[in-house]
Amino acid sequence: MSSSKSFPGKCQQSLADHMRPDLFKALCDPVRISIVATLAAQAESQTVGDLTECCGIDFSGVSRHLKILREAGVVNADKNGREMLYSLKTEELAETLHAMADALIGCRDIA
After folding, report:
1. pLDDT computed for residue 3 by the predictor
2. CA dihedral for 4, 5, 6, 8, sign (positive or negative)
3. How far is C-alpha 71 from the geometric centre of its chain's CA atoms?
4. Which of 47, 54, 89, 96 has the fewest CB atoms found within 10 Å of its own CB?
């Protein structure tokens, strides 16, 4: 029988394999949550100008937040002429969050 002290280590490794600190950092800001919610509710990609309406901040502020979300893999950015169009990576984000949840639930199975 394994020692109960080994359970936290196995659980920690399982969580480390699935957790994404960059994702949590990107999603921990209320403005970025507003951007994600706005993109999730839209059928079409949005410009930075479109997204300024959701957040109550200026164009450059929205651009900075979108950069963080893009670097964390939360949004796509596609150039259309002189504009960038942003869309939520819905499927990828959902898969990542499901994997994290499964890893947490899996910790119960390790014990």
Report:
1. 44
2. positive
3. 10
4. 47
As a whole number of angstroms, the distance between CA 101 and CA 18 comes to: 9
Q: Which domains does the chain have, with CATH numbers?
A: 6-110 (1.10.10.10)
Q: Hey, what are 26's tokens?
A: 């990107």
Report in angstroms the alpha-carbon separations of 101 from 3, 37, 49, 95.
Answer: 25, 20, 34, 10
Q: Which residues contact 111 (CB under 8 A, 6 or more apart)?
A: 4, 7, 11
| 84 vs 111: CA distance, rounded Å | 48
- pLDDT bin (cut points 50, 70, 90) of residue 1 is very low
Full-model pTM: 0.81
CA distance 92 to 89: 6
